[in-house]
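This section describes the prediction task in plain terms. A model, or a person checking by hand, is given the sequence of a single protein chain and must write out its three-dimensional structure as a string of tokens. No templates, partner chains or ligands are provided. The sample shown here is typical of the held-out split.
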Amino acid sequence: MIEDGIIIAVDESGVPPAGLPVVDLGDRTLLPGLVDAHVHLVLPGVPDPVAAAAAPEGKLLMNARQAASRCLDAGITTVRDLGDRDYVTLRLREELALRPHEGPHLLVSGPPITTAQGHCWFLGGALEDPAGLPEAVRHRATRDVDFIKIMASGGEITPGSRSWQPQFTAAELRSVVVESHRLGLSVAAHAHAVDAIEGALAAGVDTIEHGTFRTPAGVEPDRRLIERVAEAGIPVSVTTGFSPAGPPLDESARSRIERTLAAAVDMRDAGVRIVCASDAGISDQKQHGLLPYSVIRLVEAGFSPVEALRAATSTAAEACGLARKGRVAPGFDADLLVVTGDPLRDITTITAVVAVYRGGRCVREFESRKGSPVASNERAVPWS
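The expected answer:
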């Protein structure tokens, strides 16, 4: 039962109160809307993200709008953007607050903080001197970002960058955390390298992004470090999903992803809170809206369907600091996903989207109710 966009009750008796307008979804599953805690909306999922990021601001905004729409098509009702250029996503955040039928609820960081020529320097957040880290945080706070993103390690898409190399010391990362927390902002740390995960943990960041335990030799999970991350309660955002619409992965990439997924299982077993995210936009293998396929990959790796779904709904919402997202329960926003079939029995049905709701209103409907098991005495009308 929904009132003013909020779930006010969940009654499983099957007998709604007399006179209550009812939407009968038939033999379908109602889920919380998905929460993608790691995307890059200005990057359109092409082979050369560096060139794509150099586009004019208007083109970047158009890319972000299209990406947001594709997210909503896939049942993703909340998105945390982990790095744009020129704060383009702040404008999109304002647009979607007024027109929620066009995209998800949006959290944004602006350009990620990185080193000179460091990972994603082309997004405009590079610093020549780490002494400027607190000021970089303050500048983003004046732009009204929702959180701070810092590149604690190198990454895969930046020429000359190495994912197994840290970019900041623990003390430098700590200066970002202290200033961000003073200003009421959380910190998300991109950390592939084992040393970068160590530094992020010591600095007290709020989320570790990727957490792939990269070394020059490959993916090498550190058991003691995993236990310390679990003890600290820091969520790790796993971004190993790939779009079936993209080109196939080569053998090296498949092997690395398999080892990364095995590390995610090890982290789960140790008590680390795993967030399922996508990193959508960074390449032609990372198309926007791919989060459901990330969920499927977790199940293939050994997560139960319930664990994987929570990682992309309630756990992801909690990691993003959102107290009213990610659950079908009283007091939560009525952001909902309707799929054909039962994802607890067959996780692939999470891609069979029938309808998507934002704030209790239908914003996507992919199957006509006429002649189908879906019936209603109050048709859910899309926003206009």
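For orientation: The two ends are 22 Å apart (CA to CA).
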